[in-house]
Amino acid sequence: MSTIDEIRKTRLKKLKAIEAAGLSAYPNKSKKTHRIEDALREFKKLSNSKERIILAGRIMSQREHGKMIFLDVYDGSGKVQVFLKENNLGEKGFKFFVNNFDIGDFIEIKGILFKTKKGEKTIEVDDYKMLAKSLLPLPEKWHGLQDIEERLRKRYLDILFNQEIREMIEKRAFFWNATRDFLIKKGFLEVETPVLEITTGGADARPFTTHHHALNMDVYLRISMGELWQKKLMVAGFEKTFEIGRQFRNEGMDAEHLQDYTQMEFYWAYADYEQGMELVEEMYKYIIQKTFGKMKFKINNFDIDFSKKWEKYDYRSIINRYTKIDVFEDSFLEMKKVLDKLNIEYDKKGFNKIRAMDNLWKYCRKKIAGPGFLINLPVEISPLAKRNEKNPKIVFRFQIIIGGSEVGNGYSELNNPIDQTERFKEQQKLRDEGDEEAQMFDNDFVTALEYGMPPTCGFGFSERLFSFLMNKPARECQIFPLLKPKN
Question: Are strands 79-85 and 106-115 parallel, antiparallel or unpaired?
């Protein structure tokens, strides 16, 4: 068995032979006339007319039979059998192909379509051209590769050999296009807001820090999809905006969480969280049907039907049901005792009552199938949401619960600058005590609120929703996930 290095050396010699013949192994363009999928769809017309067509693609297999060669060529749209014989190409042309072309090469082929005796649609070639010489061989048993790290590291091969991955990438595009299509039809304007920020806002998360050399200052990569910026657009008089883009959180990595991922957020002036829930339920159903063509899914071992009327879950009641803790009456010490009793792990650095409540909730949510809305969340864990006038301990906030996790978050936005200032102060105290996920005090945003922002509903979801619908880890649903380099 030849080693990879030996194969590469052999192919480099073939590359030199192609160039010595006065040909380019990497020409600038192809003259292809049809995609393989289209040629096969028009097969009857093209074969009957004996029209010479030009196809292009990668050689995926090769079978030699004396003075005849059969190839399978794939161009991304489809695969076609290719027939080369010495009588058509001449002895010199046939030998040149045999000596210098390999599985993995990209080629251009010219000829006519016909059916073999076995009925297989085939192109009989009278001319060929190298489009890109491959120097490394394609793996023979990629389908059986169990090392997920290797598959993700060489994702291009995973996509090439795994139709399921290819379809997932296409579905991912349909998913975000359906999101965009729905919001635009509802009158939302797509906007772009800064990725680099002086203070991060819109979420409880540890940010990435980088240095801006031109201004000689440190800045942060955004942790939300322009939440505070989009609210400033509400101040400026826009009624409906949304953004789809990348955001970054310098936190732990697991099956649900990534550090660099796509998020959507919308903001809707003069609407409240009740209207937001109605719109979001309609939006999710639209996106899911458009992307997957069905409404029933198996997610995290839950059977979920998105077509039914969604439920509502009370934050206090759910936690009390599963842990016997009353989040509004019990102390921080009592919460810690229950966390330890339930063997719930948590980061002890900067740990406080807010983080204790959050960890209790995360334990409880794993037991809820959904789809539904978590409501009546405490004001302490919602620094940007509007208080409930009848019960100031809770806010007008909702989270989407699917398969034991949160896959969407929205609320009636806090537009009282005095209240917002106090909540930012409380968040800053938590940061000073070591909580790196607490929100930063944003003076500029408070100033904008003092000019007046109308009642507004905001909502967002990330690509975690897509990974849940695919029932796969989030990392596997990214096209090129971040990986540590090999040593």
Answer: unpaired
For residue 409, what are the β-bridge partners?
399, 460
- Residues 95 and 232: their CA atoms lie apart, in Å, by 69
188 in a structural domain: yes
Whole-angstrom distance, CA of residue 179 vs CA of residue 186: 11
Q: What is the pLDDT of residues 445-481, one digit of tens each?
A: 999 999 999 999 999 999 999 999 999 999 999 999 9
- Four-CA torsion 330, 332, 334, 338, nearest 10 degrees: 110
Mean pLDDT confidence for 333-348:
90
Give Cα separations from 51 to 42, 113, 124, 126, 266 (angstroms): 11, 8, 11, 12, 53
Which residues are paired to 395 by β-bridges?
A: 387
Shared domain for 119 and 169, answered yes or no, is: no
| CATH number of residue 98's parent domain | 2.40.50.140
Q: Is residue 114 part of a domain?
A: yes
Could you list the residue range(s) of the whole structural domain that residue 451 is in? Answer: 156-310+370-477
Residue 129: name the closest of 28, 254, 250, 203 by CA: 28
Q: What are phi and psi of 68, to 5 degrees?
A: -135, 145
**CB burial of residue 73 (10 Å; 0-12, 13-18, 19+):** buried
**CA 242 to CA 459: how far, in whole Å?**
9
Q: CA 327, CA 381: separation in Å to the nearest integer?
A: 11
3-class DSSP assignment, residue 269: strand
Residues 109 and 164 reside in one and the same domain: no
Is the model's pLDDT at 79 over the cut of 70?
yes
Assign 257 a pLDDT band (cuts: 50, 70, 90): confident
Domain count, the chain: 2
Strand pairing partners for 123? 82, 113
Residues 160 and 126 in one domain: no
* DSSP, residue by residue, 223-245: SSSSHHHHHHHHHTT--EEEEEE
Residue of 261, 265, 247, 260 lying closest to 191 (CA atoms): 265
